[in-house]
Fold this protein.
Amino acid sequence: EVQLVESGGGLVRPGGSLRLSCAASGFTFSTYHMNWVRQAPGKGLEWVSSISGSRAYIYYADSVKGRFTISRDNAKNSLYLQMNSLRAEDTAIYYCARADGSSPHYWGQGTLVTVSS
Amino acid sequence: QSVLTQPPSVSAAPGQKVTISCSGRSSNIGNNYVSWYQQLPGTAPKLLIYDNNKRPSAIPDRFSGSKSGTSATLGISGLQTGDEADYYCGTWDSSLSAVVFGGGTKVTVL
């Protein structure tokens, strides 16, 4: 059974940093593209970033480019999102999602990031 | 403003059918597979349809998907109160090099 468990969310001040983690199990992690997708309170889904299994392909939404960094450790079956220079508009639930083909298929339960002074 | 366009809401009585449209362009829906997601209140999104019209094994055949040109449609037949949720379409956009989603459609069972 595919399982994705996010962690690392919390309250952070504007301009601060946070690192999210996603622990994957139930599949061969290194062979799948992975995504981070976020959802602001009461809003729709917003894709944040994607990384290929080999790390050869990495993509970011314009809204986070230059501030967020996606990475993965295939030996640890883990996905990460380093978030710097956080803004109030980054407040959201952040979901880790496995891609099958080009779109997310399996989703974690999410971790809440709140950016506030 | 979402890249993909969905109606904000649709509604129907129990047992009826609803359809949700998702409109895009050639760089996204026109040349890539479409997925649909259901998000029940307070929960993570769940995959309903992938590759335009395929259902994961656990998804009942009341849910169906189709695509024509730069638009896709999700159908929900035999509507149940448990189907009240937000529904999102999503796909890859080759021009943006990004996953794109619709703004979401709230389904209400009258």
Q: What stands out?
A: Chain A is about 0% helix and 55% strand.
